[in-house]
Design goal:
Layout lengths: L1 E9 L5 E8 L5 E5 L4 E8 L5 E3 L7 H6 L7 E2 L5 E2 L3 E4 L2 E4 L8 E2 L12 E7 L2 E10 L10 E10 L3 E10 L3 E2 L3 E2 L17 E4 L3 E5 L5 E7 L11 E2 L12 E5 L9 E7 L5 E7 L3 E5 L5 E4 L5 E3 L5 E5 L14 E2 L5 E11 L1
Antiparallel strand pairs: 1-2, 2-3, 3-4, 4-5, 6-16, 7-10, 8-9, 11-12, 12-13, 13-14, 14-29, 15-28, 17-20, 17-22, 18-19, 18-21, 21-24, 22-23, 23-29, 24-27, 25-26
Length: 346
């Protein structure tokens, strides 16, 4: 196991971002930067031992600063959409930025993905990692409370990439953190992910309206084009889903907040497999519907369906849906969330 630190770049204002390279003995290499607590690259060997970067993204800090697609970053305070950018907490209505049509998306205009995080290397016999910390001050993007956030990326000798989140507040607030990485198991820039085989451990999903906001109804996936309870090729039915997949699946859980299997993705040509487990109740499957000529690494251009996202999180707009699991956090409570990505070949 090895970890090294370098300078990723400086902003026009002179703020410096660090980049950390995490490597294990099996040929897996992950790079994370303190800007946005962002996963920048993830090199994974295929069935023949040839490594490729399976993560879309950019080569420079400046590109991440300008990015509006949330490449690889930590999303907060609240991932996903909030209806009309408004929520009520203990009788007080809060108004957030509406940066996605009429609605609030992924923390607002300057969410956690646009912040510089403090970083600390972690090294153990069987893992290496980086601990990122950030204090989101009371009123940032109009969210209440000073929120102290920790995100830890860990690469293990067992070919796992773990992302662990913790947070505490001094005033009641709402929180829903996730990572927004765009994956292509054949390698970033290799084309679409329509040949990838997807399994999602969810018998139901949160129904959405035309603005991708929950209606409040939880519907079964059985008999629909949204059913991935058994392995299905992503491209099989994607044309039957308006725009492509962009919805929250309600994960099958024996106990709330228990660590359990969430999803499995297989790319048949390379043999690469990614398995996702999480403590979160939901997972947003997004088939990169809005990518349209985005210039990325190595001269690659990313287009619609060139990647998939599997964002482990609480349900969208939960604060406005009383039947959904709560995303409220009060002083004295600790927010915790663990997601593990395991890589293998077949």
């Amino acid at each position: 196991m090895e970890i090294k630190k370098d300078v990723f770049g400086k902003t026009d204002e002179g703020k410096e971002a660090e980049i950390f390279t995490l490597s294990n003995d099996n040929g897996i290499t992950a790079k994370v930067t303190s800007y946005g607590a962002t996963l920048v690259s993830l090199e994974i060997p295929d069935k023949n031992g040839k490594a490729a970067d399976i993560l879309l993204g950019f080569e420079t800090l400046d590109e991440y600063v300008k990015d509006l697609t949330f490449q690889g970053c930590t999303v907060g305070r609240c991932a996903n959409r909030i209806l009309n950018g408004k929520f009520v907490l203990d009788g007080v209505e809060y108004t957030l930025a509406t940066n996605d049509g009429n609605n609030h998306l992924h923390g607002g205009v300057k969410g956690f993905n646009k912040m510089f995080w403090d970083a600390e290397s972690i090294q153990n016999d069987d893992s290496v990692g980086v601990k990122f910390t950030y204090l989101s001050e009371d009123g940032q993007e109009n969210y209440p409370g000073n929120l102290a956030v920790t995100v830890i990326y860990t690469l293990t000798s067992a070919d796992e990439l773990k992302i662990e989140y913790e947070a505490e507040t001094d005033k009641k607030t709402i929180i829903n953190l996730t990572n927004h990485s765009y994956y292509n198991l054949a390698g970033a820039g290799s084309g679409t992910i329509l040949n990838h085989e997807m399994t999602i451990n969810a018998d139901s999903y949160t129904e959405t309206n035309d603005e991708l906001l929950p209606t409040g109804q939880i519907k079964p996936v059985s008999g629909t084009d949204l059913d991935f309870t058994t392995p299905r090729v992503i491209g099989d039915r994607i044309t039957n889903v308006k725009g492509g997949y962009d919805l929250n699946y309600v994960l099958n859980k024996e106990q709330p907040a228990s660590m359990s299997f969430a999803a499995r993705v297989v790319e048949p040509t390379s043999g690469r497999v990614m398995e996702v487990s999480t403590t979160e109740p939901g997972i947003q499957f997004y088939s990169s519907n809005f990518l349209d000529g985005l210039k990325g690494k190595a001269g690659n251009v990313y287009n619609q369906h060139d990647a998939f996202c599997l964002e482990t999180q609480h349900f969208p707009d939960s604060q406005n849906q009383p039947s959904f699991p709560s995303i409220a956090l009060a002083p004295g409570q600790k927010y915790k969330h663990l997601t593990v990505h395991r890589f293998l070949v077949q």
